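Researcher: Please translate sequence to structure tokens.
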Amino acid sequence: METTSVSLLDRIANDGENSDWAKLFSIYRPFVASVVNRYPALVSQSDDITQEVIMILMRELPTFRRQRTGSFRSWLRGITVNQLRIALRKSKKFQQTDSTGLEMEAELDELANPASIAAKKWEEEHDAMVLKRIVKVVRADFKETTWTAFQRYAIEKRPPADVAAELNISLNSVLLAKSRVLRRMREEAAGLIDE
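Model: Translation complete:
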């Protein structure tokens, strides 16, 4: 288990290892693909658009510096919107007079506006999906007993003494499980999700 409190973004910016990049891809590839797939005119290009967003992340992330809360999320949204626009303009289905293309351009304009409802929805969906993926990534770092103690105590809100008895571990082990798993999740989520 990793004990450093350096976030995934920081590790990548400082010559991240392949495992760090793999974690980032496992978190973001599904999210970006889900966003792209909302635009029927571009579904056939979903893999290519998603790959392009990921390639830009690979190229630019080492120089990315978090400037404020949510800046990575906003930066990713901007990259995704730009790649959707590029794909839309290249699409044979899109014509300047085509109502579907014009509607999609308007939707992308709204998504690009940080104050819009679409941007707020993006943020909520981003945080929910990233958290779900981080849980999967972090779970692999712990023994089954530790994870089960965390889940029953922290997620299911069961009394720690009951959890300890069920798992045949000490009360202190249950409390430590919650603390260690939450700390690890915060480390992985730092800069990706706003608390």
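Researcher: Any highlights?
Model: Residues 8-142 form one domain.
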